[in-house]
């Protein structure tokens, strides 16, 4: 089932505004219609009742009435209908007379007769005939006064008056209300748009400011307008952005100082280390001429000096990445040949490393940095995982260009789940999960930076058969 996209805030605001306007218009029109309808009908029925009562009171009666007398009375009354012409029906005992051709009317109901019998001043009722037309039926008894009391004479006159004119008046009012509602709603769109704009403008400004802030423009601020809740939100955003800008500036300054310190220390250490390495090489050659304890001490100093030299070189390299001074020197490289030479150079071309190297796979990359990547991955697998280490090379066609995929898998216990998220962190050593490392903790971090410099990715996981699995993915045509 296709999900309907949610409406925007502007649309919802305008819809809510128009809904309120529509409800208000309908409510007002309904109340106005009810009041006007009641007033129109009340005026008609009051006039009719009053007219019929006045005419009945002035009508001379000679009781008991004959059929001719009853007919004369209803005929005269039928000519005096107000405010609209009416039909008059008279009932006197068993006698019936009418100002029309029909002796009785279906509009005169039994309910109206009971009301007239209970009210000597008369009664009325609004009814609808069988054709659905509205009528006003008024019943008025003829009485005579006796000792200030109204005594019925037995004569009851009913007047039925169609309410077609009043109905037309009410229909005209309804039509006018309808015609006025549509332009009213159309006009209501204008203040709805203005209201939506006044609400959405600060929201839009805040969204754009948040986007700029996310892009690193920490000096972004919002213009505060007014003193409402949105203005308060804008002030809070500005205060937060200011505090964030200050904190980030302090962090950047501290990070810059740390980078400069590491770079300066590395540079300062290179010269004395070069002399120390030269001396330890000479001492290594003559160690066999010393007593065993002295020879062991010399070899220890030589090994630790070598580690210190590697650490300094790694610090120098990571400093270049931090300063964005690392450059690519691209060349057309045979991948299989580059892998074999890298392994031979470090004497790993024995049973400890198994390779799957298809021929005629060429890529444009920095051969020196590729050698560093491969050496770090294979060396890390041999030190922390275990032999045999498997190196496989593949190419993958992609819509955006062919990719080079290299997998380095070891035969060790694998990487602990809690270690995986930190495997490429600087100076991180998973001593609890792997064999104790003698490295600097920068090898994998430098490897990742070299891969990124080529526009590739490097991931670490555990292989399906156990052991750690590092997967390198980079374009065959790296851009300098």
UniProtKB/TrEMBL annotation:
Lineage: Bacteria, Bacillati, Actinomycetota, Actinomycetes, Kitasatosporales
The reaction(s) this protein catalyses: ATP + protein L-histidine = ADP + protein N-phospho-L-histidine
SMART domains xref list: HAMP, HATPase_c, HisKA
Keywords: Kinase, Membrane, Phosphoprotein, Transferase, Transmembrane, Transmembrane helix, Two-component regulatory system
Main location group: membrane
InterPro entries referenced in this protein's UniProt entry, alphabetically: HAMP_dom, HATPase_C_sf, HATPase_dom, His_kinase_dom, HisK_dim/P_dom, HisK_dim/P_sf, Sig_transdc_His_kin-like_C, TCS_sensor_his_kinase
Localisation per UniProt entry: Cell membrane
Top-level taxonomic group: Bacteria
Top-level EC class: transferase
Cellular component GO terms, alphabetical: plasma membrane
Domain HAMP span(s) in chain numbering: 197-249
Keyword Transmembrane: yes
Entry GO MF terms: phosphorelay sensor kinase activity
Protein name: histidine kinase
Cited CDD domains: HAMP, HATPase, HisKA
């Amino acid at each position: 089932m296709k999900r309907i996209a949610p409406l925007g805030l502007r649309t919802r605001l305008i819809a809510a505004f128009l809904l309120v306007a529509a409800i208000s218009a309908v409510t007002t029109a309904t109340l106005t219609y009810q009041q006007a309808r009641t007033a129109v009908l009340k005026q008609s029925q009051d006039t009719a009742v009053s007219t019929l009562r006045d005419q009945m009171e002035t009508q001379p009666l000679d009781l008991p009435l004959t059929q001719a007398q009853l007919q004369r009375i209803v005929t005269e009354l039928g000519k005096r209908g107000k405010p609209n012409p009416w039909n008059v029906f008279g009932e006197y005992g068993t006698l019936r007379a009418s100002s029309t051709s029909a002796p009785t009317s279906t509009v005169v109901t039994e309910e109206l007769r009971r009301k007239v019998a209970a009210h000597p001043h008369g009664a009325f009722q609004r009814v609808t005939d069988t054709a659905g037309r509205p009528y006003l039926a008024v019943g008025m008894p003829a009485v005579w006064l006796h000792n200030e009391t109204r005594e019925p004479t037995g004569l009851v006159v009913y007047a039925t008056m169609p309410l077609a004119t009043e109905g037309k008046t009410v229909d005209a009012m309804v039509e006018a209300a309808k015609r006025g509602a549509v332009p009213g709603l159309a006009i209501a769109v204008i203040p709805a748009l203005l209201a939506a704009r006044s609400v959405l403008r600060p929201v839009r400004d805040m969204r754009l400011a948040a986007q700029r802030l996310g892009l690193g423009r920490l000096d972004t601020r919002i213009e505060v307008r007014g003193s409402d809740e949105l203005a308060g939100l804008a002030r809070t955003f500005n205060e937060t952005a200011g505090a964030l800008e200050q904190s980030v500036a302090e962090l950047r300054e501290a990070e810059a100082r740390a980078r400069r310190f590491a770079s300066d220390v590395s540079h300062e250490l290179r010269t004395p280390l070069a002399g120390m390495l030269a001396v330890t090489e000479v001492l290594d050659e003559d160690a066999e001429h010393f007593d065993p304890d002295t020879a062991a001490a010399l070899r220890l100093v030589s090994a630790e000096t070598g580690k210190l030299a590697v650490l300094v070189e790694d610090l120098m390299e990571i400093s270049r990445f931090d300063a964005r001074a690392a450059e690519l020197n691209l060349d057309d490289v045979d991948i299989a040949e580059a892998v074999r030479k890298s392994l031979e150079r470090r004497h790993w071309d024995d049973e400890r490393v198994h390779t799957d190297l298809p021929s005629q796979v060429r890529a444009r990359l920095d051969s020196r940095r590729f050698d560093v990547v491969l050496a770090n991955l294979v060396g890390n697998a041999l030190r922390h995982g275990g032999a045999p280490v498997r190196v496989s090379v593949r190419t993958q066609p992609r819509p955006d260009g062919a990719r080079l995929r290299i997998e380095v898998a070891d035969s060790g216990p694998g990487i602990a789940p809690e270690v995986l998220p930190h495997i490429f962190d600087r100076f991180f050593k998973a001593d609890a999960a792997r064999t104790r490392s003698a490295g600097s903790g920068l090898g994998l971090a430098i490897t990742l930076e070299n891969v990124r410099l080529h526009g590739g990715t490097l991931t670490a996981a555990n292989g399906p058969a156990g052991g750690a699995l590092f997967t390198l993915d980079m374009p065959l045509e790296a851009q300098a």
